[in-house]
């Protein structure tokens, strides 16, 4: 199988996994605190748009990234307010954010940048090849000319794992997602912990969006996330609501996409391979590959009766 | 004053009810003080006032002589009040240590799990509350989960422990263990408030008892020298019959014949394994067992709600193993399921609709697919009168009735069809002493009429006082069938835990006597 020794296949896998892993971990943060989050698609789009815009206006892609994170936090905060404070249906809200994200970014693109879209002169984030890794056999293929956000993503995976499972804040966030009433009687602030989870989730999703617009490219297209927010949702579930699990699932899905690109022109229909992530998700949800159990209070608003 | 806690003239009103009416209560150091009362007597309201979940309208709470005003449970916890709720406030997905320290974890940003486990271990040694600090709470038995709750209180430096109906979910053995823990804590000088509606338990563990009825404190007595009957009368406010005298049994022919039955749950796990027994006309056959040992799957299979995997069910000489639930009803089987609000009633339907639920397809309730409301209302009013359902209003929704009356509605619906066999699961769960008495009388009356009754209950007392024969089930296996007249509680308790040999019985029963010493 010469195709498996093709470095581009592996570099593509990691590159395509990045915009899945980031929102998947974002969703994990939100759902671990008990707020069902299917709004990653919309938040990614908003992140992607603001990243490009601010990169163009300021000339600095780093400021673009910051703007994306701020926009992601803002939209997540509004989502959280409606989901937590108003106890609205979280799935309906998530869909609303997705539709809003698609609409507002298309509208702003046209209004601000006009028919031609974002200017080609927009700066994008740098790609890095670390010489020490480059010469290592297989690992070198993975990390060949990756964007800086790919490395950031890997750092964030580890940081997220540490935060969720090894800090006091993480313990409290998980407690609130499992049994908010118990947490409340122990003096934890259920609402504030849930806001924290949702907003961290929004920031991570927005970074995922920024990776598409100023990481791989330097432009924004209408609906450029192309359903990645939903695949991230699948990766989150497939990864059993853990950062490393999400990364693993994202890599698997990234590999499937990369493989379908690499196999173009071969005998195997690429559409079949592109189908793989979705088929795997259905299998995961059906409990074939170990049981994936959501946090117990996921999706249930907590009302204070005091 | 040597009083640790004293409550004077405490009053709390809710719209339409005076839940606590000038309550007085004192709790000494080193005593177990029981609060005894029926459901709705105001016990929970009183506890919530003491624990800061409600604020009183008037009256005073003194803790160690100083007046306290709690605005939330946090204030109460801070003042040294620990409470173990009837429904545990635990997080099953986390470990014992995580649960105990949550909200006040060791460490700064990083959570110091090692130190948390160490603290839990030393607490559990200090208070003799043995439990594995690293175990996941969801994997523990109910009795152990309760210990985690008690540890939580002591981790927060509780000086007073409130136990709200702590034995509701425990097995007899676990109850004994809890009582020995309570006695140990009492001897350590920790005052304990023990909320209960079970007379025997109050007598077994408490030093003093305060009886509540209809929002008032009726009496505070020393437990030594009171009888269960006295306490029951105080609690209900009239003379109650605790153990109904049974008529001599007129046992008839075999009606229900279960042969080597095997049942699986929806995940294909075997829940009932090779169970065989018979129920005769004119007898109450009690099925005892700890929750989750297959008893409810067994009766669901007999009622036709679960598929039989292997074996057969014979009723009145007919093999009904493959009949639908509806067809079984037609052969003369009636079923009172364990969860009256979910399986027994449609809470949003009125009593008319609920009472005709089994028969709405038939005349006179429907004709050619059209319902006849008139006939149904007449039928409902008739049953409401016969079974003394209150309030006597057929147009009320089932949700508006008290638990006891909801149960009467289900019994009325099932019994009015004149079945030959009545299957009842947990018929008195959560009901008052008075309501329980009524249901028990009704069941024994049916037995004396020659009906066969299959009773499943987690309350051992209920099984022992009603049954003629008792089958004990453990992990889906029928351990033994014993005569209710001669068997002891201990014997059934042991069978419930699956130990069948006399050797095991001897060792365990000496253990029980050990912990029984006051």
Descriptive report:
The complex is a heterodimer of chains A (306) and B (518). Chain A contains 14 helices and 2 strands. The model of chain A has no long low-confidence stretch (mean pLDDT 89). Chain B has 3 domains: 234 residues, Rossmann fold; 177 residues, 3-Layer(aba) Sandwich (Rossmann fold), CATH 3.40.50.300; 65 residues, no CATH class. In chain B, 35% of the residues lie in helices and 26% in strands. In chain B, the strands form 5 sheets. Chain B has a 6-stranded mixed beta sheet, with helices on both faces. Chain B is globular, with a radius of gyration of 25 Å. The chains are: A mainly alpha (306), B alpha/beta (518). At the A-B interface, helix 8 and helix 9 of A face helix 2 of B.
Quickly list its features.
heterodimer; A: 306 residues; mainly alpha; two-stranded antiparallel sheet; 14 helices; 70% helix; globular; B: 518 residues; alpha/beta; Rossmann fold; 6-stranded mixed sheet; 18 helices; 22 strands; disordered C terminus
Compile the SSE list and pairings:
The complex is a heterodimer of chains A (306) and B (518).
Chain A lengths: L6 H26 L7 H19 L2 H25 L4 H24 L13 E2 L2 H4 L2 H6 L3 E2 H19 L1 H11 L1 H6 L4 H27 L11 H11 L4 H20 L7 H5 L1 H10 L21
Antiparallel strand pairs in A: 1-2
Chain B lengths: L2 E12 L2 E12 L3 E5 L6 H8 L7 E6 L2 E3 L4 H6 L2 E4 L11 H6 L11 H14 L15 H14 L4 E5 L7 H16 L4 E5 L2 H7 L2 E6 L2 E7 L5 H9 L17 E11 L5 E11 L3 E5 L6 H9 L4 E8 L2 E2 L5 H7 L1 E4 L3 H5 L6 H5 L10 E2 L2 E2 L1 H14 L16 H13 L5 E5 L7 H16 L3 E5 L3 H7 L2 E6 L2 E7 L5 H8 L5 H15 L2
Parallel strand pairs in B: 3-8, 3-9, 6-7, 7-8, 13-20, 13-21, 16-19, 19-20
Antiparallel strand pairs in B: 1-2, 1-4, 4-5, 9-10, 11-12, 11-14, 14-15, 17-18, 21-22
């Amino acid at each position: 199988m010469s195709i498996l020794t093709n470095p581009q296949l592996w570099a593509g896998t990691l590159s395509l996994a990045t915009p899945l892993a980031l929102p998947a971990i974002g969703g994990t943060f939100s759902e671990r605190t008990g707020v069902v989050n299917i709004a990653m698609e919309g938040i990614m789009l908003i992140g992607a748009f603001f990243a490009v815009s601010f990169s163009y206006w300021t000339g600095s892609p780093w400021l673009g990234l910051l703007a994306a994170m701020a926009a992601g936090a803002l939209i997540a905060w509004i989502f959280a307010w409606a989901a937590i404070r108003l106890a609205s249906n979280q799935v309906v809200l998530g869909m609303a954010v997705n539709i809003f994200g698609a609409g507002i970014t298309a509208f702003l693109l046209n209004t601000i940048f006009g028919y031609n879209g974002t200017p080609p002169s927009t700066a994008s984030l740098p790609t890095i090849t670390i010489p020490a890794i480059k010469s290592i056999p297989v690992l070198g293929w993975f990390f060949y000319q990756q964007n800086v956000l790919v490395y950031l993503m890997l750092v964030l995976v580890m940081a997220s794992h540490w935060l969720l499972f090894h800090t006091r804040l993480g313990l409290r966030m998980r407690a609130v997602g499992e049994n908010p009433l118990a947490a409340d009687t122990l003096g934890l602030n259920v609402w504030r912990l849930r806001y924290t989870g949702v907003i961290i989730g929004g920031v991570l999703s927005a970074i995922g969006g920024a990776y598409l617009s100023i990481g791989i490219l330097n432009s924004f297209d209408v609906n450029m996330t192309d359903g990645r927010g939903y695949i991230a949702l699948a990766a989150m579930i497939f990864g059993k609501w853990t950062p490393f699990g999400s990364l693993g699932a994202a890599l698997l899905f990234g590999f499937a996409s990369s493989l379908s690109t690499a196999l173009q022109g071969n005998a195997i229909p690429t559409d079949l391979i592109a189908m793989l992530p979705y088929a795997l998700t259905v299998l995961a949800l059906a409990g074939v590959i170990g049981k994936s159990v959501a946090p117990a209070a996921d999706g249930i608003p907590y009302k204070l009766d005091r | 004053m040597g009083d640790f806690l004293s409550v004077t003239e405490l009053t709390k009103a809710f719209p339409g009810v005076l839940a606590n009416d000038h309550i007085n209560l004192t709790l000494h150091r080193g005593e177990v003080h029981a609060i005894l009362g029926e459901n709705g007597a105001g016990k929970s309201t009183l506890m919530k006032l003491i624990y800061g979940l409600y604020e009183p309208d008037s009256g005073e709470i003194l803790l160690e002589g100083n007046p306290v005003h709690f605005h939330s449970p946090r204030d109460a916890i801070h003042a040294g009040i620990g409470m173990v709720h009837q429904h545990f406030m635990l997080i099953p997905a986390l470990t014992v240590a995580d649960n105990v320290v949550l909200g006040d974890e060791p460490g700064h940003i990083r959570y110091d799990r090692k130190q948390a486990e160490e603290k839990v271990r030393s607490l559990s040694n200090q208070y003799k509350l043995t439990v594995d600090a690293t175990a996941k709470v969801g994997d523990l038995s109910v009795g152990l989960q309760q210990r985690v709750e008690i540890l939580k209180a002591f981790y927060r430096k509780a000086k007073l422990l409130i136990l709200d109906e702590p034995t509701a979910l425990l097995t007899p053995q676990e109850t004994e263990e809890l009582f020995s823990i309570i006695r140990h804590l009492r001897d350590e000088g920790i005052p304990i408030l023990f909320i209960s509606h079970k007379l025997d338990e109050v007598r077994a563990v408490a030093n003093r008892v305060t009886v509540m009825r209809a929002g008032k404190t009726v009496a505070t007595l020393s437990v030594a020298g009171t009888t269960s009957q006295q306490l029951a009368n105080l609690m209900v406010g009239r003379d109650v019959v605790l153990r109904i005298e049974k008529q001599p049994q007129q046992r008839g022919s075999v009606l229900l014949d279960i042969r080597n039955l095997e049942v699986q749950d929806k995940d294909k796990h075997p829940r009932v394994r090779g169970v065989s027994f018979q129920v005769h006309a004119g007898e109450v056959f009690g099925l005892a067992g700890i929750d989750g040992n297959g008893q409810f799957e067994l009766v669901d299979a007999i009622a036709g709600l679960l598929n039989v995997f292997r074996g057969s069910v014979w009723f009145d000489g007919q093999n009904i193993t493959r009949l639908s639930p509806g067809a079984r009803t037609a052969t003369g089987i009636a079923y009172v399921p364990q969860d009256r609000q979910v399986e027994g009633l449609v809470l949003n339907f009125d009593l008319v609709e609920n009472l005709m639920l089994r028969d709405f397809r038939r005349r006179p309730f429907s004709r050619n697919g059209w319902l006849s409301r008139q006939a149904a209302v007449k039928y409902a009013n008739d049953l409401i009168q016969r079974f003394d359902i209150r309030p006597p209003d057929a147009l009320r929704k089932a949700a508006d009735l008290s638990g006891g009356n909801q149960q009467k509605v289900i019994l009325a619906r099932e019994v009015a069809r004149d079945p030959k066999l009545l299957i009842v699961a947990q018929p008195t769960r959560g009901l008052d002493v008075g309501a329980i008495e009524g249901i028990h009388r009704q069941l024994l009356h049916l037995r004396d009429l020659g009906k066969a009754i299959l009773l499943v209950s987690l309350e051992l007392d209920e099984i022992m006082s009603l049954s003629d024969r008792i089958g004990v089930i453990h992990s889906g296996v029928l351990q033994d069938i014993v005569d209710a007249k001669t068997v002891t509680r201990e014997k059934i308790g042991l069978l419930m835990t699956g130990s069948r040999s006399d050797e095991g019985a001897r060792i365990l029963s000496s253990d029980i006597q050990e912990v029984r010493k006051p």
